[in-house]
Design a protein that fits this description.
The chain has 26 helices and 9 strands. It is of the alpha/beta class and 585 residues long. The chain has 4 domains: 53 residues, no CATH class; 219 residues, Rossmann fold (3-Layer(aba) Sandwich); 72 residues, no CATH class; 186 residues, no CATH class. The strands form 3 sheets. It has a 5-stranded parallel beta sheet with strand order 4-5-6-3-7, with helices on both faces. Strands 1-2 form a two-stranded antiparallel ribbon. The longest helix has 22 residues. InterPro entries: NPHP3-like_N, P-loop_NTPase.
Length: 585
């Protein structure tokens, strides 16, 4: 007897045998009715094993309605709120997209989780959107959840499990019944820990239907989670990753189930993927910025968009063959630093239909920190930088107090300090000068890993024998943002304050050296620093800035006068400091 005939016979018999209350008699759990041979008085020559079906009655509807109240519709890959979300052009990101799709469809893969990490604006969400659409076309997309910090309905972990369970329920009526029954048994399940929710609403129901009876109706198996870093609660991110690791990847789920997570390399996922983390060796990790060079893709993206702009504008200059020219496109590619958000933001600004694309492109190319452009061409990029830096600054202040200085000031000082090569590498000198040794460099960038990376420098070792470390910027435009008061807004730190910090550290290091009888190497470092020449060239010496702490000036004069090696510096700086001291009186 076929399964279809079995269901038809079961429904007819059930309908004839309903009691006056309208419900079939059953001793099974709510919403589930066991198959019984007494339902088939004329049937013979077949055997029914452990078979369950869901009764689509009132209690099932209650579970479904309760589930829907906890779903985040905006988080679906094809939600109305995400209309026209960015995705990859057909000839861009081909390598990484192929690698991801191959991993998803490879039933023999030793890992069931893929973590794609990359800098802010690298195009991770566009890749996720592209993969989601391809999986949907192949009918293998089980569920998707796109976080967004700007959308309160999907900026936390609370709706994640319900939203995934909802999509799984749509893929299988039987699974829908099991999920709804679970909700009815425990209507407060959505208030429980994420691990409990995942086990109750996803892992256990899916495991129940993985029997030979349902082998001919396989479930879609790709679960996609984008923008984990956009979740407002860091502890929530950790809890979600742990729930995925402990429950979704358990033996109760079919081996071909795959979870694809995309995120900036912020603390939660960065730590989980480290050698001591719980996802290390358990997840397939693609480091987008290291594994794939995006420059050629960005170049193709720009040329295609420029051709579209030229075909739509009325400005004849943009219709000239070859506009805007290879040189201009290459400048934009360099400025993008491998981050698609810069290219996309630039194109969006240039393509404003009420303005000339040629004039707007010129404004972008000729822009320099401090240059005012009323229409703010980098608004989207600035918002991204501001959000990341604000949160990181608050966390750094809470951790370090005022001992380490303001986060933005330190970052700008790191970029300001001239190269130095007397006895140590440039990178070691900068970290020592800014007192960022002994793990403080890691603390500094803990919440900035989507903008800045700490890289080990081959060939240079510290006194402890470890490879020296340096800061590496993913975004060339990041310091442009920091140096522009219009773009940085309330995060802007005047250059005079950066100089004040650097000079104060100069005084501090020289004073420490004087007290510890290590004055000669300290003065050598100070004279090699070239700070005075640098400050004079940039015309940013601010006497008013130092008048508030004349004792530091007097201390420096005493130190400089105490050693012959300092006479050149003293001759250069003494008149300036003496004048400063006199003007203070």
């Amino acid at each position: 007897m076929s399964l279809k005939k079995l269901f038809d016979s079961l429904r007819r018999t059930k309908s004839n045998g309903e009691n006056r209350s309208g419900r079939a008699r059953s001793q099974s759990s709510p919403g589930l009715t066991p198959a019984s041979l007494t339902f088939f008085p004329n049937a013979n020559a077949f055997h029914i094993g452990s078979f369950q079906y869901y009764e689509n009655g009132g209690r099932g509807r209650e579970g479904w309605e309760t589930l829907l109240k906890h779903v985040a519709p905006n988080a679906l890959y094809d939600s109305k709120s995400r209309f026209d979300s960015p995705k990859c052009d057909e000839d861009t990101r081909q390598g990484v997209n192929h690698e991801i799709m191959h991993w998803i469809q490879d039933s023999g893969s030793p890992t069931r989780t893929l973590c794609l990490t990359g800098a802010a604006g690298a195009g991770k969400s566009a890749i996720q959107q592209t993969i989601a659409e391809r999986c949907a076309e192949l009918s293998i997309l089980a569920a998707s959840f796109f976080f967004s910090a700007a959308d309160t309905t999907r900026n936390g972990v609370e709706p994640v499990v319900a939203t995934i369970a909802y999509q799984l329920a749509l893929a299988s009526p039987l699974l829908k019944g099991l999920i709804c029954a679970a909700v009815e048994r425990d209507p407060l399940v959505f208030s429980r820990a994420l691990r409990t929710q995942v086990d109750t609403l996803i892992a256990h129901p899916v495991g129940q239907i993985q029997t030979p009876l349902h082998a001919s109706e396989p479930l879609p198996y790709a679960i996609l989670i984008d923008g984990l870093d956009e979740c407002r609660d860091e502890q929530g991110r950790v809890e979600l990753l742990l729930a995925i690791h402990q429950c979704l990847l358990s033996a109760s789920l079919p081996a071909h189930f795959k979870i694809f997570i995309a995120s900036r390399p912020e603390h939660a996922i960065f730590t989980a993927l480290q050698p001591t983390g719980f996802l290390h060796g358990q997840a397939y990790h693609i480091r987008l910025n290291q594994a794939y060079d995006a420059d050629s893709d960005i170049q193709r993206f720009l040329w295609r968009r420029f051709r579209t702009i030229a075909s739509q504008t009325s400005d004849p200059r943009a219709k000239e063959i070859g506009w805007p020219g290879e040189k201009i496109v290459n400048i934009l590619v360099v400025n993008a630093s491998g981050q698609f958000i810069y290219a996309a933001t630039t194109i969006k600004y240039i393509s404003e239909r009420r303005s000339s694309p040629v004039d707007r492109l010129h404004a972008v190319i000729s822009w320099a920190p401090g240059t005012s452009i009323p229409s703010r061409p980098f608004a989207a990029l600035d918002t991204l930088y501001h959000n990341i830096l604000s949160k990181a600054g608050d966390n750094y202040l809470a951790l370090e107090g005022n001992r380490g200085g303001d986060l933005v000031t330190i970052l700008r000082a790191y970029d300001t300090i001239p190269d130095y090569s007397y006895g140590m590498s440039t990178w070691a000198w900068r970290t020592v000068f800014l007192n960022l040794t002994h793990g403080k460099l890691e603390t500094l960038v803990s919440d900035l890993r989507s903008l800045i990376d700490v890289q080990q420098v081959e060939g240079f070792t510290s006194d402890e024998g470890n490879l020296e470390e340096r800061l590496h910027l993913y975004h060339k435009s990041f310091f442009d943002f920091l140096e522009d008061p219009d773009r940085a807004g309330d995060l802007y730190v005047p250059e005079s304050e950066v100089v004040a910090m650097v000079l104060s550290l100069c005084f501090s290091h020289l004073t420490d050296a004087f007290l510890s009888m290590r004055l000669e190497p300290a003065i050598r470092r100070f004279t090699r620093l070239g700070m005075w020449e640098r400050l004079k060239e940039r015309n940013i010496l601010d006497k008013e800035m130092l008048r508030n702490d004349i004792s530091l000036v007097e201390s420096l004069l005493r130190i400089l006068g105490a050693h012959d090696l300092a006479r050149d510096v003293a001759a250069e700086t003494r008149p300036w400091f003496t004048d400063l001291a006199v003007s203070k009186e």
